[in-house]
Amino acid sequence: MDKHRKEHRDRLVTLSFVSVLLILIYGPGAPWFIGADRFLFDQFATHVRNAPLENGLIVSINPSNKSADEVTAEYGRVLQVFKEHNVERIIISQAPGMDSAAELPGWAAALSSGVPVFVPSDHRLADVATTTGILSLQPDSDDVLRRSRLWHLQGGIMSPSLPLSVALHDQDYATDSRISESDVAIYLTNYNPVDRLSAEEILAPDFQGSQLAGKTVFLDAEPPLVGAAAMLPSRQFVTRSEITATLLANIEQEQTVIAPTWVRALDWLVPALLAIVALLFLPGRKRRDIVLVVTVVVVTLLVIEAMFLLIGRVRLDLGRPVIILFGIGILSWWLAGGVKKASVNAFKRGSDFLTAGRLEPAFAEFRRCELNEPLATVMYKLSLAFEQQAKPERAEAVLQWMKRTHSSTGSLSKFTLRPKNGIPQRLGRYVIEKRIGKGAMGAVYLARDPRINRAVALKVIPIEKEFEDEELEEARLRFFREAESAGRLTHPNIITVYDCGEDKHLAYIAMEYLQGISLTTFTDPKKLLAPKKALELCARTAEGLDYAHNQGVIHRDIKPANILYSLRSDMLKISDFGVARLTDNNRTKTGIVLGTPMYMSPEQLNAEDLTGHSDLFSLGVTLYELLVGEVPFKASNIAVLMTRITTEDPAPVSNRRPGIPPSVDAVLFKALAKRPEKRFANGGEMAIALRNCAKYAS
Q1: How far lies 627's CA from each of 170, 203, 512, 659, in Å?
Q2: DSSP 679
Q3: What pLDDT is stored for residue 433 in this prediction?
Q4: Domain of 629: which CATH number?
Q5: In 3D, which of 493, 495, 597 has the Cα closest to residue 545?
Q6: Which pLDDT does position 589 carry in this prediction?
Q7: In this structure, what CATH number is given to the domain that contains residue 483?
Q8: Exposed site from 96, 180, 246, 314, fewest CB < 10 Å?
């Protein structure tokens, strides 16, 4: 499908999805989705700074094991102490239970003279109290008290809440301008504890009454926690007195959390704007860009809500807009996967055509793929294939396409010729830059193909020095045959072989150049990878081996030195396919046996016919070393080592290092089985087992 047509289709799909989502979230489904707004508010509400009520004190009467008359009498004695010691005001948030027809002569005398006493307007004592107010606790559907009304319509008259009534009774109180903007409600966040005493302490003979002078005293019929009447957004359980004290402190100290009318307008405007912006910018983008945009916008929304609440003390609900943005992002991410899937399918078809020698269909399929480095790699192999078929004009067309690709991605490096002492300046058509490694049979150089300025890693083997005359021709044939087999491998976890040849008595293989390091770096006990990372890297290696084995290619020399890893790009690739076979008949001279026998399988040491199971055994040894910093089989000489590899079981690794789950022992035991048929059936099965272990590793 044409890119513009697909982008247009994606926008229509996204528009339909957003329309349905907005109607659902702010319409019939609001009761289910409003929990997102509440969740975000609760997370930030815990951190709102609330100053406690100045000169506040809560006195609680414990009604346990007391009759109603005893509780009432205790109320009276406590009230008398309050008045004798000149408290500023008394707030009875929870008065004792009374019959609606009860006589109140004693209470009338206690409440109507001297210190002002405030009681809830729905209690019998409201008839004789100085001032009353409505104390209505209406939690949300999740039983959390977040909102308190300042005014209530009662009998056709607007009556103040109890905290507001207390504040308005003070002649020095100037009405907070923020309250007039709050749409007759304020919001609770957290409770900053007020000093608390028990009635027993107040009535004790040795009590210092001076502690009460000038205090705003709350009289509560329940002790803390036991008498909790509600839960705040901060998940604190509070009594009616603690709720009243918090609201009164917020009102008098002008620290109320409000939701002005313009904020309510934003609650509707923000999701609509987000939907429009997401609709314009997300469809048609790459998945990485979609994730980045959604992440940035979500973080921005969270910061905005936090700043409104923590600094401006304004409640702005952005939970549902975040859900909308996530929904659009997930849909756009899924739609973007269609492009990638089509590109992957085209790449697979092109690779199959290239393997079958059908070059023109391969070229057509590759040109439908997204421009990236793996595509440039196979296109380079395609140009060489055109040259081999004596079609230089088609090879040139491929090269021109590659130049356009790399000029847009910026992945080609420009090299200049710099001769080095002791290093050949050129092998075949490749210009050598510098040596980047050395192996048992030769060296590895960084070189470039001057035709396209492409960096390559050149594996060079002095084949005439390594083999005697009677073996030279056979080794040369084997070298090119194995290099050709390796050149058919196209997998993200395998170094791609571009070309091979012989020049100046040196055999060479031109391979993909990866700017990374070998896993040998991480076998040092002081530089071990995290177990989870080591398991993941070996799982990728197993997947690469599974692909190679399915193509009929066995590596024969899997070890940390032949597994390259780029920390920067998190890319892993197996190297040296096509080289190990060359050493099979030349072990003593090249030092291969003396250098890496600890990674070899029992059948490889016994010179038996090898299958892919041998590579899996070597990968098991590699994983063991990456986890604990040493190989499972060690000895001072080759004979003892071969005996241990072929007869002994490895020691478990889970008890040697924290973070390694016991399941790794089972995987290693199976990978290092002495008989090939008892190991994993293939690399794919081993990769699955390793990733299952990684879920429980740290």
Answers
A1: 72, 70, 28, 10
A2: S
A3: 85
A4: 1.10.510.10
A5: 493
A6: 39
A7: 3.30.200.20
A8: 180
